[in-house]
Amino acid sequence: MHPIIESIKGKLIVSVQAYPGEPLRTPEIMASMSRACELGGAAAIRCQGLSDISAIKGRVEIPVIGLWKDGHEGVYITPTLRHARACVAAGADIVAIDATDRPRPDGKTLEDTVRPLQDEGVLLMADCMTIEDIRHAAELGFDLVSTTLSHNKPAIDTTLDEGPDLPLLRQATAEFPDLPIICEGHVHTPAEARAAIDAGAWAVVVGTAITHPTSLTSWFKAAIDA
Length: 226
Fold this sequence. Notes:
The chain is globular, with a radius of gyration of 17 Å. Helices cover 41% and strands 15% of the residues. The protein contains ten helices and eight strands. The chain has helices at 3-7, 27-40, 50-57, 81-90, 110-119, 131-140, 166-175, 190-198, 208-211, 213-225; strands spanning 11-15, 44-48, 64-67, 94-98, 123-127, 144-146, 181-184, 203-206. Helix 2 (27-40) crosses helix 3.
């Protein structure tokens, strides 16, 4: 197993992203926030956009998981080979790719996208929605798989809305005990992060609850206003 994959086992990955139009939406701010997370104990940073990848890679010593969001619907997380190669060129140590079975914007299959990258030695993280996605990602030889998109299922179980998809995580780790499976999505408290590790997660990604002050503020305001 690659040393970078080993280095994040049992650890916290912080997703450092801001949405277009938000006050924090600059590469320098994202890089500073990433460094702050590193000082707090993050084992890796997950970030999006070529400018952010480059800026963050220049500020932290921990691995950077890079992706490129292009669009807002369907497959938009590093949707094509071109996007993935650009992430590598920007400095990503691992590239995260939408690994669902939905149509890709360039008409290629997921296998068409990942095989050239694997031949080039790129470490790949599969952002999955269902257990079928995870099975396919395992078959294709992804280095990591993640539950990133599980809350995007069309007929979602509403019991998952307030926390991470631990049922999917448990099913995946039971089927693939030797595959690094990352828990990502709706991890909002330290207790939920710990529960994910206890459920078998290789590592846990936390984003909004650490790096999105607008959401954090709204949570406190809602509690006070209730």
